[in-house]
Specification:
Blueprint (H helix, E strand, L loop, with lengths): L9 H14 L3 H18 L3 E2 L16 E6 L1 H4 L4 H10 L1 E2 L5 E6 L5 H5 L2 H10 L3 E5 L11 H16 L3 E5 L12 H15 L3 E2 L1 H11 L15 H16 L15 H20 L2
Parallel strand pairs: 1-3, 2-4, 2-5, 5-6, 6-7
Helix pairs in contact: 4-10, 9-10, 9-11, 10-11
């Protein structure tokens, strides 16, 4: 009888152990608390949770992780679209892990770029998920978008043979070479995009939409040809929305020279433009 009342008895020790286990949080509860804490931290920090606003279907089989930008000075201006798209991707929660490179040459439309062996070699050896092709249609002396179709097809074949996917970046007209309009540039990109079954990032149309709503916010710089920092930032948001089928609205990244209010405006314009473009495809 005395042994049964002893605190070291097996019966009482088992009861105490069970009570201790009952007061300890379960593994599932710990994981739940950790997950909620992580989500809360993301919502309160300078990043936006993934998947906040998405298009119903993506034209790409999966979110790309390695990008190559091919184009002229429109692509590398103001620090490079590769840099700004990477910064936007890093502003999600958790950050999108992407690598972005470029193969660019000033004043070179796709016709000239395709003639550069090092550009084709970079595509062939880079194992890129997506190659973003930016043509400068006004530069064609033929005063026709025909070279855009010819060299877009050739580049797409190179990209497909290397295991990647093509995205067409629609640029814009400008005063120095004013033989072609934005609507003609848009039609060329829509037609080639449909032919090749590749997505188009409608940057030029986003410029139009932004200027229609806020004419005082210039999309082009003093030379009326290359982008202002606002134009570059809008272009990066259009590309982000095109690649990931996701709204960039709420991403906290904005470069020097762009206010948070302007960034929010340009992100909205980018998302609206991509949505409107997809509806017409």
């Amino acid at each position: 009888m005395r042994q049964d009342n002893n605190s070291s008895s097996p019966v009482k020790a088992e009861r105490v152990s069970a009570n201790a286990r009952g007061n300890r949080p379960s593994r599932r509860a710990c994981l739940l608390v950790f997950g909620l804490s992580l989500l809360s931290a993301c919502l309160c920090s300078a990043c936006k949770p993934l998947g906040a606003s998405r298009l119903a279907a993506s034209p790409l089989p999966q979110p790309p992780r390695k990008l190559l930008f091919v184009g002229d000075s429109f692509t590398y201006y103001n620090g490079g679209l590769d840099n700004h798209v990477t910064q936007l991707a890093n502003a999600t929660c958790p950050p999108r892990s992407i690598v972005a490179e470029r193969a660019t040459k000033g004043g070179a439309p796709l016709k000239k770029l395709y003639g550069l062996q090092w550009v084709r070699d970079k595509i062939r050896g880079g194992v890129f998920d997506v190659v973003i092709l930016q043509d400068d249609i006004p530069e064609y002396r033929e005063h026709s978008p025909a070279p855009f179709f010819e060299y877009g097809r050739l580049f797409n074949r190179e990209i497909r043979n290397a295991g990647g996917r093509t995205v067409l970046l629609m640029a814009w007209p400008y005063e120095r070479l004013n033989w072609v309009s934005q609507s003609e540039i848009a039609k060329a990109h829509r037609d080639l995009g449909r032919e090749l079954r590749v997505p188009v990032a409608p940057v030029g149309l986003a410029f139009q939409r932004a200027l229609a709503e806020r004419p005082t916010l210039a999309m082009l710089g003093p030379d009326k040809e290359h982008e202002s920092i606002h134009g570059t930032y809008l272009a990066a948001n259009v590309i982000y929305a095109t690649l990931f089928s996701e709204s960039p609205e709420g991403l906290k990244y904005c470069p020097a020279g762009v206010s948070m209010e302007e960034a929010a405006f340009l992100q909205r314009i980018a998302w609206q433009t991509v949505q409107a473009w997809r509806r017409k495809q």
